[in-house]
Here is the input.
Amino acid sequence: MRGSLPLKDIAKVVRSKNAGPFEITFDIILKSREDYEAVKASGVITKQLISKLYDVPTQRIITFLYFDAANAIKATIPRPRPQGSVGENRHARRSTARSADARANPVAERRTVR
Here is the structure.
């Protein structure tokens, strides 16, 4: 299958998690090596995309990397407010909704291995 697929269809895990009181980490773990390599080669999920989705200048993104051993993409950004401060929950909800809407495009043709 070629073309655009929702990230939820090819990802085993899409999550955000605490990385201390001042940072949030996002993990995307793809279901297969083939999907991971296709997403990586496509250049769709980038530091620039994270910057745009979460309104963080690229120079403020703490970590953005492809982790080949786990078929994963990881990004860490600064929190707009320290964890637990007034208004912090609003950002967490917005982040989750934006992550769920992210799409991986294009995904390389899938092959059935027998």
